[in-house]
Amino acid sequence: MAQERPKTPRLTRSDVVKEYLTAYNFVCALLWLSIFGRVVLLIPITGVESVYEAAGDITKWTQTVAILEILHSTFGLVRSPLLTTALQVSSRLLIVWAVVDRFPAATSTSPFYSSMLVAWSATEIVRYSYFVLNLRGLAPGYVTWLRYNMFYVLYPVGILSEAMLVGKASEAAGEPWRWVGWGILGLYVPGMYLLCMRSYVLYTYMIAQRRKVLKGKQAERRSRAATQ
Protein backbone atom coordinates (compact mmCIF):
# COMPACT_ATOMS: atom_id res chain seq x y z
CA MET A 1 0.00 0.00 0.00
CA ALA A 2 1.42 3.37 -1.04
CA GLN A 3 2.33 5.61 1.86
CA GLU A 4 0.30 8.78 1.98
CA ARG A 5 2.23 12.01 1.78
CA PRO A 6 1.82 14.33 4.74
CA LYS A 7 -0.58 17.10 3.96
CA THR A 8 0.94 20.55 3.55
CA PRO A 9 -0.79 23.03 5.86
CA ARG A 10 -2.95 25.41 3.88
CA LEU A 11 -2.30 29.09 4.22
CA THR A 12 -5.21 30.95 5.73
CA ARG A 13 -6.17 34.54 4.95
CA SER A 14 -4.64 35.67 8.24
CA ASP A 15 -1.36 33.93 7.35
CA VAL A 16 -1.21 35.71 4.00
CA VAL A 17 -2.03 39.07 5.60
CA LYS A 18 0.63 38.51 8.26
CA GLU A 19 3.31 37.71 5.67
CA TYR A 20 2.32 40.68 3.53
CA LEU A 21 2.34 43.12 6.46
CA THR A 22 5.68 41.77 7.65
CA ALA A 23 7.22 42.31 4.21
CA TYR A 24 5.61 45.76 3.84
CA ASN A 25 6.82 47.00 7.23
CA PHE A 26 10.30 45.55 6.73
CA VAL A 27 10.73 47.33 3.38
CA CYS A 28 9.43 50.60 4.82
CA ALA A 29 11.82 50.35 7.77
CA LEU A 30 14.74 49.93 5.36
CA LEU A 31 13.63 52.86 3.22
CA TRP A 32 13.35 55.20 6.20
CA LEU A 33 16.68 53.94 7.53
CA SER A 34 18.21 54.92 4.18
CA ILE A 35 16.68 58.41 4.47
CA PHE A 36 17.88 58.82 8.06
CA GLY A 37 21.38 57.70 7.13
CA ARG A 38 21.61 60.13 4.23
CA VAL A 39 20.53 63.08 6.36
CA VAL A 40 22.71 62.47 9.41
CA LEU A 41 25.77 61.62 7.32
CA LEU A 42 25.46 64.58 4.97
CA ILE A 43 24.78 67.38 7.45
CA PRO A 44 28.20 67.26 9.16
CA ILE A 45 29.98 67.04 5.78
CA THR A 46 28.13 69.39 3.43
CA GLY A 47 25.48 71.03 5.60
CA VAL A 48 21.72 71.08 5.16
CA GLU A 49 21.92 72.51 1.64
CA SER A 50 22.63 69.12 0.05
CA VAL A 51 20.04 67.09 1.98
CA TYR A 52 17.20 67.64 -0.50
CA GLU A 53 19.31 66.58 -3.46
CA ALA A 54 20.33 63.36 -1.71
CA ALA A 55 17.11 62.47 0.09
CA GLY A 56 14.29 64.44 -1.56
CA ASP A 57 13.19 61.91 -4.16
CA ILE A 58 13.39 58.84 -1.93
CA THR A 59 11.44 60.70 0.77
CA LYS A 60 8.66 61.69 -1.66
CA TRP A 61 8.18 58.19 -2.97
CA THR A 62 8.63 56.42 0.36
CA GLN A 63 5.94 58.65 1.83
CA THR A 64 3.72 58.09 -1.21
CA VAL A 65 3.91 54.33 -0.66
CA ALA A 66 2.23 54.96 2.71
CA ILE A 67 -1.06 55.47 0.83
CA LEU A 68 -1.25 51.68 1.16
CA GLU A 69 -1.69 52.15 4.91
CA ILE A 70 -5.01 53.91 4.30
CA LEU A 71 -6.09 50.85 2.32
CA HIS A 72 -4.82 48.54 5.07
CA SER A 73 -7.05 50.35 7.55
CA THR A 74 -9.99 50.57 5.15
CA PHE A 75 -10.03 46.81 4.48
CA GLY A 76 -9.35 45.79 8.06
CA LEU A 77 -5.85 44.43 7.58
CA VAL A 78 -4.73 46.48 10.60
CA ARG A 79 -6.55 47.89 13.62
CA SER A 80 -5.35 51.48 13.15
CA PRO A 81 -8.27 53.96 12.99
CA LEU A 82 -8.94 55.10 9.44
CA LEU A 83 -9.24 58.80 10.35
CA THR A 84 -5.91 58.87 12.19
CA THR A 85 -4.14 57.02 9.39
CA ALA A 86 -5.66 59.22 6.68
CA LEU A 87 -4.69 62.41 8.52
CA GLN A 88 -1.11 61.25 9.00
CA VAL A 89 -0.58 60.11 5.42
CA SER A 90 -2.42 62.95 3.66
CA SER A 91 -0.73 65.71 5.66
CA ARG A 92 2.71 64.31 4.90
CA LEU A 93 1.85 63.96 1.22
CA LEU A 94 0.83 67.61 1.27
CA ILE A 95 4.23 68.54 2.70
CA VAL A 96 6.41 66.50 0.32
CA TRP A 97 4.48 67.19 -2.89
CA ALA A 98 2.58 70.50 -2.53
CA VAL A 99 5.07 72.31 -0.30
CA VAL A 100 8.65 71.07 -0.71
CA ASP A 101 8.45 69.69 -4.25
CA ARG A 102 6.45 72.71 -5.46
CA PHE A 103 8.68 75.33 -3.81
CA PRO A 104 12.14 73.76 -3.45
CA ALA A 105 14.02 77.06 -3.60
CA ALA A 106 12.20 78.30 -0.49
CA THR A 107 12.13 75.08 1.50
CA SER A 108 14.73 72.50 0.48
CA THR A 109 17.79 74.25 1.92
CA SER A 110 16.06 75.18 5.17
CA PRO A 111 17.30 73.53 8.37
CA PHE A 112 13.65 72.74 9.03
CA TYR A 113 13.59 70.38 6.05
CA SER A 114 16.43 68.39 7.57
CA SER A 115 14.93 68.43 11.07
CA MET A 116 11.63 67.24 9.61
CA LEU A 117 13.32 64.32 7.87
CA VAL A 118 15.22 63.35 11.01
CA ALA A 119 12.01 63.41 13.07
CA TRP A 120 10.02 61.51 10.43
CA SER A 121 12.65 58.89 9.70
CA ALA A 122 13.55 58.20 13.35
CA THR A 123 9.86 57.77 14.14
CA GLU A 124 9.26 55.47 11.18
CA ILE A 125 12.33 53.30 11.69
CA VAL A 126 11.13 52.48 15.20
CA ARG A 127 7.46 52.19 14.20
CA TYR A 128 7.97 49.83 11.27
CA SER A 129 10.60 47.78 13.11
CA TYR A 130 8.20 47.40 16.02
CA PHE A 131 5.46 46.19 13.67
CA VAL A 132 7.76 43.61 12.05
CA LEU A 133 8.92 42.23 15.39
CA ASN A 134 5.45 42.34 16.90
CA LEU A 135 3.97 40.42 13.99
CA ARG A 136 6.53 37.71 14.69
CA GLY A 137 5.98 37.82 18.44
CA LEU A 138 9.55 39.00 18.97
CA ALA A 139 9.22 42.65 20.01
CA PRO A 140 11.64 43.22 22.92
CA GLY A 141 10.73 45.58 25.73
CA TYR A 142 13.11 48.33 24.68
CA VAL A 143 11.61 48.51 21.17
CA THR A 144 8.13 48.80 22.67
CA TRP A 145 9.39 51.52 25.00
CA LEU A 146 10.91 53.47 22.09
CA ARG A 147 7.77 53.06 20.01
CA TYR A 148 5.54 54.56 22.69
CA ASN A 149 7.86 57.20 24.16
CA MET A 150 9.91 58.73 21.32
CA PHE A 151 6.87 60.49 19.89
CA TYR A 152 6.81 62.89 22.86
CA VAL A 153 9.89 64.55 21.38
CA LEU A 154 9.76 63.64 17.70
CA TYR A 155 6.14 64.62 16.98
CA PRO A 156 6.56 68.24 18.14
CA VAL A 157 9.85 68.53 16.22
CA GLY A 158 8.22 67.16 13.08
CA ILE A 159 5.09 69.30 13.36
CA LEU A 160 7.06 72.48 14.03
CA SER A 161 9.36 71.75 11.08
CA GLU A 162 6.37 71.13 8.80
CA ALA A 163 4.74 74.38 9.91
CA MET A 164 7.90 76.36 9.20
CA LEU A 165 8.19 74.84 5.71
CA VAL A 166 4.55 75.66 4.95
CA GLY A 167 5.24 79.24 6.05
CA LYS A 168 8.30 79.51 3.79
CA ALA A 169 6.38 78.07 0.84
CA SER A 170 3.52 80.51 1.48
CA GLU A 171 5.90 83.46 1.32
CA ALA A 172 7.24 82.20 -2.02
CA ALA A 173 3.81 81.48 -3.53
CA GLY A 174 1.97 84.00 -5.62
CA GLU A 175 -1.67 85.01 -5.20
CA PRO A 176 -4.02 83.31 -4.40
CA TRP A 177 -1.87 80.34 -3.33
CA ARG A 178 -0.19 82.43 -0.66
CA TRP A 179 -3.47 82.63 1.24
CA VAL A 180 -4.06 78.92 0.78
CA GLY A 181 -0.65 78.31 2.32
CA TRP A 182 -1.38 80.57 5.27
CA GLY A 183 -4.68 78.76 5.74
CA ILE A 184 -2.84 75.45 5.88
CA LEU A 185 -0.33 76.99 8.26
CA GLY A 186 -3.20 77.96 10.51
CA LEU A 187 -3.85 74.25 10.98
CA TYR A 188 -0.36 73.79 12.44
CA VAL A 189 0.25 76.81 14.65
CA PRO A 190 -0.25 76.13 18.37
CA GLY A 191 -3.32 77.87 19.70
CA MET A 192 -5.01 77.86 16.28
CA TYR A 193 -7.50 75.06 15.73
CA LEU A 194 -6.30 73.36 18.91
CA LEU A 195 -2.86 72.53 17.53
CA CYS A 196 -4.75 71.57 14.38
CA MET A 197 -7.00 68.60 13.99
CA ARG A 198 -4.16 66.53 12.63
CA SER A 199 -1.64 67.29 15.37
CA TYR A 200 -4.20 66.95 18.15
CA VAL A 201 -5.68 63.69 16.87
CA LEU A 202 -2.32 62.03 16.23
CA TYR A 203 -0.77 63.15 19.50
CA THR A 204 -3.71 62.11 21.70
CA TYR A 205 -4.02 58.83 19.79
CA MET A 206 -0.38 57.99 20.52
CA ILE A 207 -0.80 58.89 24.20
CA ALA A 208 -3.82 56.59 24.44
CA GLN A 209 -1.96 53.81 22.63
CA ARG A 210 1.05 54.25 24.92
CA ARG A 211 -1.15 53.96 28.02
CA LYS A 212 -2.91 50.88 26.64
CA VAL A 213 0.22 49.01 25.53
CA LEU A 214 2.36 49.78 28.55
CA LYS A 215 -0.45 48.85 30.95
CA GLY A 216 -0.76 45.55 29.11
CA LYS A 217 2.96 44.93 29.47
CA GLN A 218 2.82 45.67 33.21
CA ALA A 219 -0.11 43.28 33.69
CA GLU A 220 1.75 40.62 31.74
CA ARG A 221 4.83 40.97 33.95
CA ARG A 222 2.74 40.81 37.13
CA SER A 223 1.00 37.68 35.86
CA ARG A 224 4.32 35.97 35.12
CA ALA A 225 5.69 36.94 38.53
CA ALA A 226 2.63 35.51 40.28
CA THR A 227 3.02 32.13 38.57
CA GLN A 228 6.70 31.70 39.43
Characterization of this structure:
- With 228 residues, the protein is mainly α.
- The protein has ten helices and no strands.
- The chain has helices at 13-46, 51-65, 67-74, 82-100, 104-107, 111-135, 141-147, 151-172, 177-186, 197-227.
- The longest helix has 34 residues, at 13-46.
- It is elongated, with a radius of gyration of 21 Å.
- Mean pLDDT is 82; it is low at 189-195.
Strand and helix order: HHHHHHHHHH
DSSP, total strands? 0
Question: What's the multimeric state?
Answer: single chain
* Fraction in helix: over 70%
Which word captures the global form?
A: elongated
Helix/sheet category: mainly alpha
- What is the count of helical runs? 10
Distance between the termini: 51 Å
Q: What gyration radius follows from the Cα positions, in whole Å?
A: 21 Å
Q: Uncertain segments of ≥5 residues (pLDDT<50)? A: 189-195
Q: What proportion strand?
A: under 5%
Sheet with the most strands?
none
User: Overall mean pLDDT score?
Assistant: 82
